[in-house]
Design a protein that fits this description.
The complex is a heterodimer of chains A (about 230) and B (about 220). Helix content of chain A is about 20%, strand content about 25%. Chain A is an alpha/beta fold. In chain B, about 15% of the residues lie in helices and about 25% in strands. The chains are: A alpha/beta (about 230), B alpha/beta (about 220). Chains A and B meet through helix 5 and helix 6 of A and helix 3 and helix 4 of B. Chain A: This is CoA transferase subunit A.
Chain lengths: ~230, ~220
């Protein structure tokens, strides 16, 4: 009766099956709520030619920035990049392909992908370089472009607490892209700060229901801060 | 005298209304939060998933799980809500945000805005700006009227790649407050001590100058 027990014992087991050339969807915004240990495991495994969907690409030496060191990412779909020198260098040298994607479109690509909706119309990007070459339709006198959604071979997610059933809650703004990423992986791996006993999480406060989740692992997190700003006085 | 960044923020703050949900972009728009009048209540939306952004935390309150869209550590105010990026952009794209304030490189007389990409320079991305300009009815664009070299940023046609088409109707520069109507900038207010002639000279796009152009006043 372990059919619903999603817990795995090691990061090796958590990322088992990932191969070069796969598409990986990652949660996180900046360095907030990133699956830092799952990323580190991908680095350790050395898989290459990855296509990554993530709002950002980490910083030098941390987060997805780690995967740049051995040129593991071939293509990244992100809304904002370039917080790291290595990224800039690889972009200028054509070693990484960057598909800049409006932040709301990126979130919706994951949400729709996870919900079985292959594409959607949005006004975002119409009349801009983002809309070039995309199908345009008019609804109610406004123009919309067709954006395709995404399903990843793997989704890597950072939660706060989970139970063995894979029910996950997020903490504060570390939620961000994580719930959508969780729905959009053929294999969804969630790392959390604490695995709690079934029943401890209130069913009506679950952010990600366990049906979306394949593997759960408890880890410890560095949680780096990108811009520490404090209140004076 | 051209407005300082703080004065621009103070002028934008006059457009806030009690009960408004407001998204403030990075730069001058962020400063608007410092000039919200005491007698009104507004909720600041941060597109990473926070409605009701509070002040910066004290050293003791700093929490890596609590940031704003500029990746700065922040707090949540009483009445705040936290949610996913999809929920956040549903608010934005669905037109639920009452006012969006954001910066730009160029705006033109057709309401087009360019704010994210200068070809030949490093391109970092648009973040949420394209969603914000496409989703909001009510946008104020803040920027300097002309570049350091004196080139107008209020154009007949944007020269840089667009962030959004036909979506801007209000512009606050360091020299003037203008609205965009029927393919032209309309000069509504001038910065204290700035002449209409200077604004005319520094506006490349079609500019309509009413008979009387009052000087700006500011939120306290």
């Amino acid at each position: 009766m372990a059919g619903f027990d999603k817990r795995v014992k090691s990061y090796e087991e958590a990322m088992a099956g990932i191969e070069s050339g796969m598409t990986v969807i990652a949660g996180g915004f900046g360095l907030c709520g990133i699956p830092e240990n799952l990323i580190a495991e991908i680095k350790r495994l050395g898989v290459k030619d990855l296509t990554v969907y993530s709002n950002n690409c980490g910083v030098d030496g941390f987060g997805l920035g780690l995967l740049l060191e051995d040129k593991q990412i071939r293509e990244i779909h992100a809304s904002y990049v370039g917080e790291n020198a290595l990224f800039e260098q690889q972009m200028l040298e054509g070693e990484i392909e960057v598909v800049l994607t409006p932040q709301g479109t990126l979130a919706e690509k994951m949400r729709a992908g996870g919900a079985g909706i292959p594409a959607f119309y949005t006004a975002t990007g119409y009349g801009t370089p983002i809309g070039e070459g995309k199908e345009v339709r008019e609804f109610g006198g406004r123009h919309y472009i067709l954006e395709e959604s995404v399903v990843g071979d793997f989704a890597i997610v950072k939660g706060w607490k989970a139970d063995r059933y894979g029910n996950v809650v997020y903490r504060d703004t570390a939620q961000n892209f994580n719930p959508m990423a969780a729905t959009a992986g053929r294999i969804t791996v969630v790392e959390v700060e604490e695995i709690v006993e079934p029943g401890e999480l209130n069913p009506d406060q679950i952010h990600t229901p366990g049906i979306y989740v394949d593997r759960i692992i408890q880890g410890s997190f560095e949680k780096r801060i990108e811009k520490r700003t404090v209140h004076q006085g | 005298m051209a407005l300082t960044r703080e004065q621009m923020a103070m002028r934008v703050a006059r457009e806030l209304e009690d009960g408004f949900y407001v998204n403030l972009g990075i730069g001058i728009p962020t400063l608007v939060a410092n000039y919200i009048p005491d007698d009104i209540d507004v909720m600041l939306q941060s597109e990473n998933g926070l409605l009701g952004m509070g002040r910066f935390p004290t050293e003791e309150e700093v929490d890596p799980d609590m940031i704003n869209a500029g990746k700065q550590t922040v707090t949540a105010r009483p009445g705040a809500a936290i949610f996913s990026s999809a929920e956040s952009f549903a608010m934005i794209r669905g037109g639920h945000v009452d006012l969006t304030v954001l910066g730009a490189f160029e705006v033109d007389q057709h309401g087009n805005i360019a704010s994210w990409m200068i070809p030949g320079k490093l391109i970092k991305g648009m973040g949420g700006a394209m969603d914000l300009v496409a989703g909001a009815e009510n946008i104020i664009c803040t920027m300097t009227h002309a570049s350091k070299h004196g080139e107008s940023k209020l154009l007949e046609q944007c020269s840089l790649p667009l962030t959004g088409a036909g979506c801007i109707n209000r512009v606050l520069t360091d020299l003037a407050y203008l609205e965009i109507e029927n393919g032209a900038f309309v000069l509504k207010e001038r910065a204290p001590g700035v002449s209409v002639e200077e604004i005319v000279e520094k506006t490349a796009g079609k500019l309509i100058v009413p008979e009387h152009v009052p000087e700006m006043t500011f939120a306290e």
